[in-house]
Amino acid sequence: xxxxxxAHITAERSVWTGQVTALCGAxxxxxxxxxxxLFPVGPLCPECRRIRDDH
Length: 55
Description:
By secondary structure, the chain is an alpha+beta fold. Helices cover 16% and strands 16% of the residues.
């Protein structure tokens, strides 16, 4: 994803490729991320937060 220090909100996740797309459009391929947490541990990506709050 764009910044390891920011938590992103997952919008889409492919079970076939492991690719994850966040609300803000940031993507990560399988192996580029360690874990997903139910509750973000760090600061939330400002763009993901804005999109979440608008809906």
